Amino acid sequence: MEFDDLVVGAGAGGAVVAARLSEDADRQVLLVEAGPDYPTLEETPEDLRDPWISLEAHDWGYQAMTGDRPIAYPRGRVMGGSTAVNAAVAARATVEDFDIWVRAGCDEWSYKEVLPYYMKLETEAVGDPAYHGRSGPIWIERPRREEWQPISAGFAEAMSAMGHDVLEDHNEPGRLGVGPCSFNVRGGVRMSVNATYLAAARRRPNLEIRSAVLVDRVVVEGGAAVGVEAVVDGHRELLRARRVTLAAGAVGTPAILQRSGVGPEDLLGGLGIPVVAPLAGVGANLMDHSGGGVAARARPGCQRDESVYFEMFFRDGPRAMALLTLFDPRPLGQFFGDPAGPPVISLTAGTWRPESRGWIRIRSSDPAAAPDIQLQLLTHPGDVALAVEGVHTGLEVLHSPAMKDFVDGIISPEPAVAASDDQIAALARATCSTGYHPAGTARMGGSGDGDAVCDQHGRVRAVARLRVADASLMPVIVTAPTNLTAIMIGERIADWMRSEAD
After folding, report:
1. Is 122 exposed, middle or buried (0-12, 13-18, 19+ CB in 10 A)?
2. At what angle do helices 111-121 and 95-103 cross, to 10 degrees?
3. Cα(10)–Cα(81) distance, rounded to whole angstroms?
4. Catalytic annotation on 58?
5. pTM score over 0.90
6. Which of 440, 68, 101 shows the shortest CA–CA distance to 289?
7. Of the residues 58, 132, 170, 437, which is catalytic?
């Protein structure tokens, strides 16, 4: 069977595109995902229902390098993609983020243009209706001020004393400062795109959803995509479609493109892959959030809501974002040699619009082989300077009068390290890790941008009927967790696809 649309990857972008395209009953849509499928919440394992990070059970098992140091690089391998395994933080990007996208040649991605799609994706009961949706698939919750936990109120008070605004809603445009996190959670259950967009679309006879399908490459004939070659139950299968949309994430999408012969000529030639389109930007421009951090022991009796991990965050536009986290000792205390000890207060402050850039390159033409992921975190001097500033800010917060009832001593950095910017920088470089937000590896750009892989509608250059609809498209990473923006990208791309004939 030949489909009208074939969507690869059922994460934030792909599930949205498939669900929206299948609203047209005359359009035959196929959505394929490498991981397993759990069609209902009752069938969904507890680690995917719980709104906390699932790092093992539904993961690709990638490893990345930052400098000469390997780190785990978790990505969701399951229906719902990384929306099914992340921390369910639902934070929008800022107006300034999209101003930068416009300057990168993507004038149809201004905040004015994307706001209706942020609103379309959500149901947010307490937000200003001028900026928030009331009937979208993703249920979003955030605590009102009277519901803030004591430690959250303390953090906000400390940041206020340092001259920063205290906010009720980070997702209202133009607001910067400190305030509560919003979450795509309802009644303590994660609202992934599988539990929302796909749950509402599954009964449509024109939408076929297939799991355990490992896509190798896009098949290109006469300069146009005509389907994909995939591995299913150990056998190769050709799945044909009039259009193909890649939404395998900022790691998976460039890998598929490279195996398809779309990418840097030196890489493809070295692996014996025939060149279909010599696009040097495929796999380049890898960005992720990272930075420095501080950690402290919580005083005995310091309480938190067991259903909440990330509680408050601070954002000051083009510089840093800090997330305050009160952890159960099981996930974090073990890293400080005290798995049975008190909860740990962890404040990370880092480079949320990093200058450092990494890359992703396949090692072979085997779709089961993990790609070479080079993060290059904190390799730009400006990023290092912000990480150092972030550590000082974090220490100031934890030493503030507003936090004295919660903090029982600093764990990291040690006093000797904290006294030296050079030592703080060295510690940050030696310990920095992923923010779980890869982006930019098939970025969009204007017509004169030779390094851009896609135009601003997500269409891959030099290959007709092939699109990208995930965080790979971001020309510059947003100053927020990428979860909500990746879903918004799916909505925006799907709207164009429904109105255009490729």
Report:
1. buried
2. 130
3. 6
4. no
5. yes
6. 440
7. 437
